[in-house]
């Protein structure tokens, strides 16, 4: 199962490395409400099929002005900063990062959160000393499930061949982004069936972060 060829691992942050307290459901409802009020999206849009990032992506496809886009990102930032105040590492996260770093593996975080919120959370939890690059939404062309954040990670760590990457995350949007970037994906705390329903084909799923070492 292991692959000694892995030289770089891309992590999602919320509920993968960081036990997030962000109210993602409330964030999504707030963004949706703003878009419905401005008649960008229909009120009967099936919300269960979307995340905050896919709602924003859908709005951008419809050509919303930059002012509204910034307003939506500000809504997300408020929820992020509030939810990260007391958030701590996921069980086993620091131990896993330390083990991977000791093997000379580059560690990167790709998150739809703002750059500032992500860096502050990693610094406060002590995980920043293990992470080589942080790719927040300001460093992406588009939010996950777009693969742009993963491609930016590959660009910044250009010494690592494209076929030597692995990624891990807790959501289907992580899986789609990774898959579309050509990076093998491991699902954390999410069932294969749930990922398959979204078109994600992981190389495996894990319940505990230490299990990721099976794939390295």
UniProtKB/TrEMBL annotation:
Organism superkingdom: Bacteria
InterPro entries: HAD-like_hydrolase_sf, HAD-like_sf, HAD-SF_hydro_IA, HAD_2, HAD_sf, PGP-like_dom2
Pfam families assigned to the protein according to its UniProt record, in alphabetical order: HAD_2
PANTHER family reported for this sequence: PHOSPHOGLYCOLATE PHOSPHATASE
NCBIfam families: HAD-SF-IA-v1
Protein's UniProt name: Haloacid dehalogenase
